[in-house]
TrEMBL record:
InterPro entries: E_motif (IPR046848), PPR_At4g14850-like_plant (IPR046960), PPR_rpt (IPR002885), TPR-like_helical_dom_sf (IPR011990)
Domain of life: Eukaryota
PPR-type repeats, residues: 77-111, 178-208, 209-239, 240-274, 311-341, 342-376
Alphabetical list of NCBIfam families matching this protein: PPR
Keyword Repeat: yes
PANTHER family: PENTATRICOPEPTIDE REPEAT-CONTAINING PROTEIN (PTHR47926), TETRATRICOPEPTIDE-LIKE HELICAL DOMAIN SUPERFAMILY (PTHR47926:SF391)
Protein name: Pentatricopeptide repeat-containing protein
Keyword terms, alphabetized: Repeat
Region forming the signal peptide: none
Amino acid sequence: MIKKTITSRSSNLHRQSSLWSRCKDLQSLKQIHAMMIISGFNSNRIALRELIYASAVTFSASIHYAHKLFAQITQPDLFMWNTMLRGSAQSLRPSLSVSVYTQMEKRCIRPDSYTFPFVLKACTKLSWLVTGLTVHGKIVKHGFESNKFARNTLIYFHANVGDIRIAGQLFDGSAKRDVVAWSALTAGYARRGELDLARRLFDDMPVKDLVSWNVMITGYVKQGKMENARELFDKVPKRDVVTWNAMISGYLLCGENEKALKMYEEMRGAGEYPDEVTMLHLLSACTDSAFLDVGKQIHQSIIEMGAGELSVFLGNALVDMYARCGSIRKALEVFQGMREKDVSSWNIIILGLAFHGHSEECISLFEDMRRMKYIPNEITFVGVLVACSHAGKVHECRGYFSLMRAEYNIEPNIRHYGCMVDMLARAGLLNEAFEFIKAMEIEPNAIIWRTLLGACRVHSNVELGRYANEQLLKLGREDSGDYVLLSNIYASRDEWGGVERVRKLMDDNGVWKEPGCTLIEADDYALRNICFDSKA
């Protein structure tokens, strides 16, 4: 256990020593922690404060490590409690903040004016109305309602989650001189979609800080009103990375990936330094638009940022970008270079390898994942089953399908069933595929029957093909391609009467076969459309 510490008079004071300023990532944090233990500093109050602050706040991704450390401190001071509340509230698991406060109450730790705002921020992020109202009551009980920090957090909570009228009353009471309160109320109206009220409040602000500008721009962005967002963006006296990120994400949400990338160029031209959020947005744009060359440039920029090793989020985004842009070898290289991985990391590369036809590597990587004690999920198994199907590994595919339930308690969904039907169909085991479909525990969809129908075309199985087509018709799927497949099955067996029956059925059901189109370039460089109707 880490030894008892002396309670400090200040619960919020934090000055970072030169040692901790050199701490750049979780790995170096662990090294400093080990050095503290060896040097006997694990009972030093100031050193422990630094350790908790770095693990909980400085590196938000290491919040789980902070909680492990905190649990070993026999008597943390109020600064440490508040630091854990703050770090948990801003982490990906804000509910941990509420859990920490519950521990505080059980141990009869008296809160100060900084305690409740952190818990209330967590409630706002989680949209926990009842818990937030309870925290409001405790703020009043302890006499912190007039505290500026607590009051502004209350305004933000009620404006976003609670009662907007209460937010207005708190604002009208004594907050009109505080720009943070103006921003909090404006953000609430914007989040609720009441942009006209938000804009009116924004325009009435006696002083506009950067937060208020960002709040209003983000409000327009979330509703896809990029012209309004751009108008404000051009008027911002001094922008920060949040301002730029809001605009980049807005263009991405509207599907305007090229504008998002141009905005990044503007950002760099203005001398603004991008952060991890910026790079995640840009990689998303490259992935969605298959801009591999731009993606490589973004990757180089990430390296040049000199932020040490890749975070899990950036690593995953890079692997996904390379895989979906067709550069699977580069995706594998990035994946293998990641020091920290999560299940999503494995899923991305496993799916990438599977869909690029690298079945052996995909299956081998899955076995590596299991050996390293990562727990696969339903997405992982989709990738593995696809790989087995493409490689014709019937026995292995059956084994992995059974493994889902037996070892990982994962119930197969329609995608897993679809992979199994595809595998059996590719292997020519049509009767077994049909029996498998009949035994499915969920209703087969059109994709399942269409997979079987396509296999019947390849293997000229008229009887099963007709049955699969009937099931598609029962599902109300009037796809001309399904009729053409059935017609082609009859044609492959020289059963021209069947071909005519299918054509008549199409006519009776009003199904129109779209003519195929191609483009040729004539001598005068004019493009002519040549349309043809493929004969069954």
